[in-house]
Amino acid sequence: MKNNFTPFPNLESSRVMLRKLMPSDRLDIFRMRSNPKMCEHADMVVDECIEESDKYIAKINAGIEANKWCTWAIELKDTQRIIGQISLWNLNVELNKGELGYGLNPKYWGQGLMKETIDLVVYYAFNVMKLSSLEIYTEKSNERSLKLASKCGFTYVREVEEDGSFKNELFHYSVFEIKNHHA
């Protein structure tokens, strides 16, 4: 597994640019992280002020610098606005696998942008990082994400229950996996 994100791996498709979050993205990140719809099926709480979004950007970039995860800002090329994020995280060197986490501003749901983004990151994970598999944990009630995981070639493997870290509740996840058949 190549677990070094320096230099940062920018990825690109016809409609999106995946790049590192920058402090100047603070307003777009605040718009997303302050939207209750973004937290509906995730163990996260809304940002109450833009300074919380600033801290979030700093935390994400510190994790990248430490090679703990790779989180990309999803920039819509037409507008150069940040419309979401996708992460490769929970990297397990022994098992040579990782987990995908993602979120998209609800304004852009249903346009195929997240599938396009996931396809880019899966390609990077398998062909550059040489991971053998990736997982997606999605809340069982998140029908959009369940369909998206299947549409991206992930296969349902199991159910998991976990206590929330940010919300005081029990989460019921469906776990999906995709294997690298070239590893």
Q: What is the tally of helical segments?
A: 5
User: What is the helix/strand order?
Assistant: EEHHHEEEHEHEE
CATH topology of the domain at 11-136: Aminopeptidase
Q: Helical proportion? A: 25-40%
- Radius of gyration over all CA atoms, rounded: 16 Å
Task: Tell me, rounded to a whole number, the average pLDDT.
Answer: 92
CATH superfamily of the domain at 11-136: Gcn5-related N-acetyltransferase (GNAT)
How would you describe this structure to a colleague?
The chain is α+β, with helices and mostly antiparallel strands and 183 residues long. 28% of the residues lie in helices and 32% in strands. It contains five helices and eight strands. It has an eight-stranded mixed sheet with strand order 1-2-3-4-5-6-8-7, with helices on both faces. The longest helix is centred in the N-terminal third of the chain and has 16 residues, at 50-65. The protein is globular, with a radius of gyration of 16 Å.
Summarize, please:
This protein is an alpha+beta fold and 183 residues long.
How is the secondary structure organized here?
Blueprint: E1 11-12, E2 16-19, H1 26-33, H2 36-39, H3 50-65, E3 70-76, E4 81-92, E5 97-104, H4 113-127, E6 133-139, H5 143-151, E7 155-163, E8 170-179
Helix pairs in contact: 1-3
Keyphrases for this structure?
Aminopeptidase; alpha+beta; globular; 183 residues
